[in-house]
Specification:
Blueprint lengths: L2 H9 L25 E2 L23 E5 L9 H4 L7 E3 L4 E8 L2 E10 L10 H7 L3 E5 L2 H7 L5 E5 L7 E5 L10 H5 L5 E2 L4 H8 L8 E2 L7 H5 L4 E5 L3 H7 L9 E4 L12 E4 L7 H20 L2 H14 L7 H13 L17 H18 L4 H6 L19
Parallel strand pairs: 2-5, 2-6, 9-10, 9-11
Antiparallel strand pairs: 1-3, 3-4, 4-5, 6-13, 7-13, 8-11, 8-12
Helix pairs in contact: 4-12
Protein name: ABC transporter substrate-binding protein
Organism: Microbacterium halimionae
Keywords: Signal
Length: about 400
């Protein structure tokens, strides 16, 4: 079994299951060492001076972006911007190259840093405040709510429109079940690593408290040995992995997106420190539309970015097992399941829906307060307008 692949689900648990600590060494995200591997290339033509794709006069010389986990296709929009002149620093686990958008060199570099074990599992808002070279971070909406009191961030565009989080079940153990409610109706345990998901299901009457099991450790062993359970996962990985990469299972699983049952957060939208929005406003006015288009371009032609992702997985060599098959399946699922789509309210790709943001705040804050992730006083102080902005969105950008 491929334990490293599944370990991400324990470490990438939703905000209520994460311990938010700021006691991390800056050594986890900076280093004086020289890059250890270089790729030749760098043939993209320069962007026309002063054009929307010319970032040289408006952005930092190196735009540093922080992801929340290991390299994977869900982060394709970031990696798709890394030019083929990239270098990999294997000490700090980062990749740097010319920032190439829509086939042209924007005049600045991009550095993409992975999260998870590479940064001692520190949440992205903490990293952004500890190392202020990080301009853009991928911050789940619920994580932004948790961090709002001490490390506030402002989301500037979404990349994934809906969360790929799912619950998985064995169709043979739950015959005829097409939904979570149907699969859980017989009283089966719902195994997760945090309590927001089960509390969400509990509040809707889909399960009772006796079914809540918070012992998920990020591996498939429990599910394989006891296929009566429902277990958390990602629609962009588990269905493929169970059927194709776990020899002890080797057959399809059934699942439903948690976004179908109220898990409405924006997953990993791109965010900036709240105190840096004004500072970076000129850059964001050009960079945000580039990020909007980059996600669309990646999904239309993911091959180069997937090749980079696979190179990073191999070079970083952290025990993170991630195959090209999973990456290609992820792209397919993002499109087929509508995980990535235009904002339903406006038709604009990457834009935030005010009503949805308000409902996220209204629905998730009680869970986060109950779990102790935030205090009641901090919850009362959160203003929905402080969590996001559509100021920099190009409203002409949409998926076909």
């Amino acid at each position: 079994m491929s334990k490293p692949t599944f370990a991400r689900h324990f470490q990438r648990s939703i905000a209520a299951g994460i311990v938010f600590s700021v006691a991390v060494s800056l050594a986890a995200c900076s280093s004086d060492s020289e890059p250890e591997e270089a790729a030749t290339g760098g043939s993209a033509p320069a962007a026309e001076a002063g054009s929307a794709l010319d970032l040289s006069d408006s952005c930092p010389a190196t735009v540093v972006m922080q992801q929340d986990w290991q390299p994977e296709a869900e982060h394709g929009a970031m990696y798709a911007l890394v030019g083929d002149d990239y270098t990999i620093d294997n000490d700090v686990k980062s990749v740097t190259g010319s920032l190439v958008a829509q086939g042209v060199d924007t005049g600045v570099d991009i550095e993409v840093r992975p999260g998870g074990p590479n940064v001692n599992f520190q949440p992205v808002p903490a990293l952004m405040y500890l190392d202020q070279d990080i301009m853009i971070g991928a911050v789940n909406t619920d994580a932004a709510i948790v961090a709002a009191a001490d490390q506030p961030t402002v989301a500037v565009t979404s990349q994934l429109t809906y969360s790929p989080q799912i619950l998985v079940w064995d169709p043979e153990s739950h015959p005829g079940a097409d939904t979570i409610a149907e699969a859980a109706a017989d009283g089966a345990p719902v195994v997760t690593s945090g309590d927001v998901i089960p509390n969400l299901l509990l509040s809707q009457g889909m399960i009772d408290s006796s079914q809540i099991d918070l012992s998920y450790e990020g591996t498939p062993q429990r599910f394989v040995s006891d296929p009566t359970i429902l277990q958390q996962g990602f629609a962009t990985a588990e269905p493929y992995i169970y059927e194709n990469e776990i020899s002890e299972w080797g057959k399809p699983v059934s699942y439903q997106l948690l976004s179908d049952v109220g898990y409405s957060i924006y997953p990993e939208p791109l965010a900036v420190r709240a105190d840096a929005v004004e500072e970076y406003s000129g850059c964001l006015a050009r960079l945000v539309p580039i990020m909007q288009q980059s996600q669309i371009d990646f999904l239309n032609d993911p091959s180069d970015a997937i090749a980079l992702i696979m190179d990073l997985v191999d070079t970083y060599d952290t025990g993170w097992a991630y195959s090209e098959g999973v990456a290609e399946f992820s792209v397919q699922q993002q499109l087929e399941l509508g995980i990535v789509q235009n904002d339903p309210a406006s038709g604009v790709f990457g834009q935030f829906d005010e009503d949805r943001m308000q409902s996220i705040l209204d629905e998730f804050v009680p869970f986060l307060v109950e779990s102790g992730s935030i205090s009641s006083s901090d919850a009362d102080a959160i203003d929905i307008d402080s969590l996001y902005t559509n100021e920099f969105i190009d409203t002409d950008i949409s998926m076909n």
